[in-house]
Amino acid sequence: MATFFDLIIGNIRTCIVLLQMVCVIIVITYLIMRSRFFIDFQNRALTWKSSILMILLFGLVSIYGTESGIYAFGAQINIRDLGPMAAGLTCGPLVGLGAGIIGGLYRYFITGGISQLACTIAAIIAGLIGGTVYLLNKKQFIGVKGAIITAGCMELIHMGLVLLLGKPFDQALALVLQVVLPMTIANMVGIGIFSFIYMNLIQERETANERDRIRTDLQRKQAELSIARDIQLSFLPDTIPSINGYQISPVSLPAREVGGDFYDVIIPVSQDKIGILIADVSGKGVPAALFMALSRTITRTNATWHKSAVSVITETNTMICADARSGMFVTLFFGVLNPDRRTFTYVNAGHNHPLIFRDNGTKEELTTTGPALGIMDDIRYTEQTTTINPGDIMVMYTDGVTESVNRNNEEFGVERLESIIDEHRCSSAEEIRDVIIKTVNEYTDGQDQFDDITIIVMKGEEHGSFCTGT
């Protein structure tokens, strides 16, 4: 009974000593795994130089496992097999075998004992077993659990070799009983900690590679979006031609690199008429931009063929419905200005109501005359006609203006827009446009722009005057 108790206490003490050795080896192997040559193995950039260096480094780890061992029954208790096994599991059979040979030969010629030959062979086998597992797992690390199981099996093989080759057998058996538990536990714990650190390093590198890939993709996409933005901006008129008796001042500010708002001034729609267009595609980003390009092209094409506003929008809706399969739609306001007669005939397809401030102080809204385009085919749109006389101001806008929010999530609203127009009714179209944008920016107080903002300000003038009212 006392002998069994002494055996248990001896095993516990031996385990503690071996685990202390493991801590040192883990630090060494961690530094090895951080080396450029070890990373070459992970990236499959293998060279003879890196292979030899890994063999030497893991071989030195095996030698340390021998030198830091403790003696019992005339033999050494150690964690020599840890180095070759780790080398094989992570770098393959060649490195594992090389490290095992270094550690095994050092054990054979430096220390003696009844387990001399068995321990030498065991170190070599440890590297081969680790490398074989590496190959069987398609040159991938087997993981923490698999590595621990491999280490446990390896130590059982080690003990079997001691019983098989150790002489005399009774001493070999006594040695095995003394060391099998602490050596098995120490090697399994050691390879477990090694594997955990190694898996974290793999994940760290994979994360870094994924981060680099995402960064590259983002840079490429940003470049593509920049090109797309330039292309989209090319759809908008570079300059607004001079129209006798009128000032027209537009602006469009996408919420993202590309947007779904657009405007156009089509000169001429017919011989004596000018088309003015503002629209807002449902959604944001690239899909909205593509739909915007489709809608703008179709509307402009129809405006060159059809004479009336209602025929332009009716045909545009038919064509958009035929091509639109994404469920997107576009609210659109299209009007035909006759500068000579000062009439403005329009169709409002579900768009925000443009505001007209008359020179005499009255206000008018150009209400909806039909639904948004792309929702349903065979829609009957109607057109309305109004006048834009000297001093009259018409502001066309998208909901990005009125639905801009402040830090309290309160919308800018139509009333604020009306107040700005009324307050600056004696200003030029360009000045009114700029003050609207400035006031919206101040209202949002640096908040990210939620939606595209597009504005067209048109003002009637005569002989260069900006305001004929009081």
TrEMBL record:
Any one GO MF annotation of this record: phosphorelay sensor kinase activity
SMART domains registered for this protein in UniProt: PP2C_SIG (SM00331)
Localization annotation: Cell membrane
Listed Pfam families: 5TM-5TMR_LYT (PF07694), SpoIIE (PF07228)
TM regions (residue ranges): 12-32, 52-74, 86-108, 114-136, 148-166, 172-201
Keyword Disulfide bond: no
Membrane topology annotation: Multi-pass membrane protein
UniProt keyword annotations, A-Z: Cell membrane, Hydrolase, Membrane, Transmembrane, Transmembrane helix
Cellular component terms per the entry's GO annotation: plasma membrane
Annotated SUPFAM superfamilies: PP2C-like
Main location: membrane
Segments forming domain PPM-type phosphatase: 245-460
InterPro entries: Bact_Sigma-Reg, PPM-type-like_dom_sf, PPM-type_phosphatase-like_dom, Sig_transdc_His_kinase_LytS_TM
Top-level taxon in the UniProt lineage: Archaea
GO biological process, one term: cell wall organization
PANTHER family registered for this protein in UniProt: STAGE II SPORULATION PROTEIN E, STAGE II SPORULATION PROTEIN E-RELATED
Protein name stated in the entry: Stage II sporulation protein E
Annotated source species: Methanospirillum lacunae
Source organism phylogeny: Archaea, Methanobacteriati, Methanobacteriota, Stenosarchaea group, Methanomicrobia
